[in-house]
Design brief:
four-stranded mixed beta sheet; about 130 residues; 2,3-Dihydroxybiphenyl 1,2-Dioxygenase, domain 1; alpha/beta
Length: about 130
């Protein structure tokens, strides 16, 4: 690999209730998500630029997607300060399982939450 591409190019978060999960992520991150059915699954897409080389992903409700706190860990970009997004988690129906925590001065901060579907996801910010 030449270092010009992301090692991760897509992620999927399993959900059991698309409307509830979509509302949670739209509220916490102050975004709008587009929904569509694809290959027999209901999908809610996180905003992203097509073919930009940037990582993006979707919420997925389908027979092969089961929410779990034991799945792969993904970290959402909480810049400039993840305290803002964390401040909206509980009101949106989630739970903070690790508050904003300093990793180190050069790396920044991290936190973990449980979303409305029972998935454990991380957040990261520089400040």
């Amino acid at each position: 690999m030449d270092g010009k591409v992301n090692i991760i190019n897509w992620f999927e978060i399993s959900v059991s209730d698309m409307a509830r999960a979509k509302k949670f992520y739209e509220t916490v991150f102050d975004i709008q998500m587009q929904e569509m059915e694809m290959m027999g699954m209901q999908m809610g897409f996180f905003p992203g630029e097509e073919m930009s080389g940037k990582v993006s992903g979707a919420l997925v409700q389908g027979p092969m997607h089961k929410p779990s706190t034991d799945g792969a860990k993904i970290y959402f970009n909480g810049n400039p300060d993840l305290a803002a997004a964390l401040g909206r988690v509980e009101a949106a129906g989630g739970k903070i399982t690790m508050p904003k925590t300093l990793i180190n001065e050069s790396t920044g901060y991290m936190a973990f939450i449980i979303d409305t579907e029972g998935n454990s996801v991380g957040m990261h910010s520089s400040h």
